[in-house]
C-alpha cells in the first residue's frame, strides 16, 4: 500500500504538471519552452527522482536560478520592441524554474513547488488565450488538482512508515565482515515487511487499513464531489462578479490618454485615437457584447426591427460610427488635431417628421468617451441616471459624439443613451448613404463652395490640394462664420494629405482607374463609384483575417492593393481612403461596428466585438458619402469556420458556443438584466411585503385613536409579537447548534471539557490496566480502536459466548466520543462502565 501511495502521487503530480505545461504552451503558440518540459517530466518520473543530480543547497542550483532570472530579464527587455514579450518573459520564467525543480532532490517542499508552478502556468495561460480549449483544460486541471492534493495528504501521512522502512532496510543490509553477503541479502525483504506494522493507522486525516482497497470508488467519488462543488462555487463567484473589464479590450498599439470616467485598461478599436493596420483583425472573432440597441418609431413608439430600420434609411447595413481617423503614416492611422470645440446636441422634438426613428443604446463600460451612433443624427441625449448632465457633445468637424464627463459617483456601469434620426424620403442620387454637416455652423452654400474649389484645383492638376485655401469672398457671411469656414476648409483639405512618394503604386493605379473617358474627366461622384466598385465588386479582392505580409518592402496598403489583394475591412477602408485622396476627394477612415446580431425574443440588436468594422466617408458636393468598400463575406459563416478547428462533432461545437457566449460573452448589461435587477427587485418586493403585513397586523391590534395609551399598547404588542418568535428561534437554534455551543463553552472554559474527558479516560485507562494484567500491552503506534480489536481477537475464546465480548469496542467508542466530541457521562453511565470493566476483569481471571 505504501508503494501504491508513492507511485500514484508522483504519477498524479506529474500528470498535473504536464497538463499545465501543454496548456500554457498551446496558449502561447510556441513549442519552446513549455512543451520541452514534457520529456523532462518523463525522465524525472523514471530516473531523476531516484537519482537526483542536484540538491537544494547545491551551488549549481543557485547558479541555475540566477541564469533563469537573467534570461527572463533579457526577454522582458525585448518588450520594448515586441510588447508581447513582456508577458511571455514571465511565462518562460515559470518553465525555467520548473526545469530546475524537476532535477532537484525532492522532499514534500519540492512537490509543493511543482504544484504552485502548475497553478501559475494555468493562470498565465488565461491571460494568453480565450480559446474554448482553455475551459476544458481548466476543468480537467481542477479534477486532477483535487485528486493530487488528496493523494498528497496520504503521501505525507505515511512519511513515518517510509522512514521506518528505509531504516529497517539499512539495518538489515548491515552484515558482519565474515558473513557471506548473498545469504543476508535475501532476508532484507522479510525484515522490511516485518518492520511495517500490519495494522491500520490514522495519519494526516487519512485512515490507512492494509486490508482495505483505499484506491477505489470512494476516493474517486469524493474527489469528483469536491470538484463539482468547487466548480459550483467558482461559477457563483464568476456570475456575481461585475464584468467591469469587458469594455476594456486590449489594443497593443493604442496610445490613448487616460479617460476621466471610471476606466480600466485600454480600449477596443473604434475608441482609440490611433490604430495600427491589423488591430481590428485581432477582435474579429471575439463574441464579447459591446452594444445593445432597440429601435422605435419616434411618433407611434412602435418597435422596429433592424430590417425595417435599414429600409427606412435606404441602406444595406447598419454602421455604428465610432472614431474618425484622418492621418496616415506607414500603416498607422490617427486622429487629426483640431482646435474646434464641441457643441451640445439638441434633444429636440421631431414629431413633425413622419418617419423619424429613435435608437436606444446601451453601451458596455469603455475606456474612452466616444459613443457609437448610426448616422445621420438629428438629436441625442443621455438616459443613464448616473450622469448629472444629460446633454451629449458633438464635434463640428469630425461629427464624433462624446459623453459629458460628469457622473454623480465613480460607479462603473453601462451607459444608456438615445438618438433620433430623420431619414431622407428618397435614396440619394449618388447611390451611397449620405449626410450633411451641422447647419448651425455651416451653410450648405458654403460647403458647396469648398467642394467646387477642390474640384477646380484637381482638374488643374494641382498636387498640393491640402495646402491651398478656398476663397470665400463670393459667399456672403459674417466675420464669425468666415472664421468657422476657414477652420472647416483647413480640416477638409487636410483629408487630401497623401505621401505620393511613399505610395507610388497606389497613385498610379488610381490615375489609371479614374482616367477620363472620351477625353471627358470623371465627376467626383463617378470617381468615387469607380474606386468603390474596383475594391468591392470587381472580384479581384477577397476577404481574409490572415495578416501575412507578402512584400515587407512595400507600404502595408500597397502590399494589400497590388500584391496580396486579400485582407479584412481595415485594409479595404485604408486603400479606398488613400485612393480617394489621390483622386482629389477628401476622405477619412471610420472605425466602429457593423450590423450585429438580432435577437427576436427581446427585439434587441446585439453588437459584439467580432462585428468591429472600418469604412470610409468622402466629402463630395458639400455632403459626406458613406462608403463600405469591403468585399462581400458572410460574418456568421466566417465566425463558425474559424472555430470549426475546435470541433470534432456537433457536441464540441455546442461547447465552444457555450464558452464564447456564456463565459467570454458575459457582460455587465447581461448581469444587470439577468441577475442584479431580478435579485434587487425580489429583495425589495419581499421587504415591502413584510412591512405591509406588519402594518396591517399592527393596525388591527392597535387602537386608531391617539390616546395616551397608544404608545403603551404599541410596546405591549411589540413584546407579545417578538417574544414568542425569539423563543421559537432560540429553541430551534439550540437544537441545531447545541454541539457547537458545547464546543464553544469547552473552548471558553477548558476545565469543563477536561473534566468530562477525564471521566471517560479513567475508564479507558482501567480497561488498559485490565488488559496489561492479562498479558496484552497497547503499543504507542496503535490507535484505541485497533487495540480493542486485537484485544477481542486475543481473548476471543474466553469472551465469545458472553455479552462481555463487545465491551472493548463499546468502551473505545465511548472514549472517542468523550475525547473528541466532549460528550458528558451521566451517573448511570459511570456506574454501568465500572460494572462492565470489573466483570471483564473477573471473567478473564476465572478463565485462566
Textual characterization of the structure:
By secondary structure, the protein is of the alpha+beta class. Among the domains are: 2-173 and 192-239, no CATH class; 274-435, no CATH class; 750-847, no CATH class. 51% of the residues lie in helices and 11% in strands. It is built from 26 helices and 23 strands. Strands 4, 5, 10, 12, 15, 20 and 21 form a 7-stranded antiparallel β-sheet that branches. It has a 6-stranded antiparallel β-sheet with strand order 11-6-19-22-23-16, with helices on both faces. Strand 17, helix 16 and strand 18 form a beta-alpha-beta unit. The longest helix is centred in the C-terminal third of the chain and has 39 residues, at 710-748. It is elongated and about 135 Å long.
Primary descriptors:
848 residues; alpha+beta; seven-stranded antiparallel beta sheet; six-stranded antiparallel beta sheet; elongated
Give a brief rundown of this model.
The protein is an alpha+beta fold. It has 26 helices and 23 strands. The strands form six sheets. Strands 4, 5, 10, 12, 15, 20 and 21 form a seven-stranded antiparallel beta sheet that branches. A six-stranded antiparallel beta sheet has the order 11-6-19-22-23-16, sandwiched between helices.
